[in-house]
Write a structure and sequence with these properties.
It is built from 2 helices and 9 strands. By secondary structure, it is α+β, with helices and mostly antiparallel strands. Strands 3, 4, 5, 6, 7, 8 and 9 form a 7-stranded antiparallel beta sheet that branches.
Length: 241
């Protein structure tokens, strides 16, 4: 019986195959990254909507009322996710809740969004942060939650101002890769976006916007957000279409 021998690829043929694969990958990778960025941004918008819904549910339930005036207040991620005790009234003034007693149950936000580290939450390629008013007289600064979530020690958000205002931002874990745009929402429920294409884009856990980034005046949460014009951070924030 006659034996046949299969000829292997020559070096030239292997080089051609590698070159073709490199070309195919060069087309496929940008498409994959673009699809991932788009999916993450869509998810981030959904998270901003979830924040608004949770804040509305928190107020409707009257879960946080640190001055005992019958007017409910907005909350932080850790509080709304039920992972840390919610703020309570301590003689009519804001105080820290007790572990094992003052966690919200049921919580108005999914628990995964209550998992706070370095005062932020990460989810689907994006970083999110909530700010509450630190005072009640303009200019009103924003106060971030504790590094591990909620507010277990002073300074506490202002009881009266927090009945009326909050703001939240979302930005990419790695700008240009896990997402591009930044997002903002406050008690008005209008989600804004910013293209985030500058030389120093918002990116990473410690590289996010300050509380006043989308507002019309520097350092003042009571100024209202800058709709379509230059905001406090110098960027243009527009409603999501």
């Amino acid at each position: 019986m006659r034996k046949t021998h299969r000829r292997g690829f020559s070096l030239v043929e292997l080089m051609v195959v590698v070159a073709i694969m490199a070309v195919l990958i060069s087309f496929a990778v940008p498409r994959f990254l673009g699809a991932r960025r788009s999916a993450n941004e869509t998810s981030a918008i959904g998270t901003m909507r979830a924040i608004v819904s949770a804040q509305m549910a928190l107020q409707a339930a009257g879960s946080i009322d640190t001055d005992s005036d019958g007017q409910a207040e907005y909350g932080y991620f850790g509080e709304m996710g039920g992972t840390v005790p919610a703020r309570v009234s301590a003689g009519g003034s804001p105080g820290a809740g007790t572990l094992g007693n003052d966690e919200l149950d049921p919580s108005p936000l999914i628990q995964s969004l209550g998992s706070v580290s370095q005062s932020v939450v990460t989810h689907s390629g994006y970083v999110f942060q909530i700010w509450l008013p630190a005072g009640n007289a303009a200019p009103i600064a924003g106060l971030a939650e504790d590094p591990s979530g909620g507010k277990l020690a002073a300074p506490f958000p202002d009881s009266d101002a927090t009945e009326n205002a909050f703001c939240a931002y979302g930005w990419p874990v790695r700008a240009g890769f896990t997402g591009s745009r930044c997002f903002f929402v406050n008690q008005e429920g209008v989600i804004l976006e910013m293209q985030n294409r500058g030389a120093t884009p918002y990116s990473g856990v410690t590289g996010g916007p300050d509380f006043d980034a989308a507002f019309g005046l520097v350092g003042d949460m009571s100024a209202g957000f800058a709709r379509g014009g230059p905001a406090a951070d110098g960027n243009t924030w527009m409603p999501v279409q």
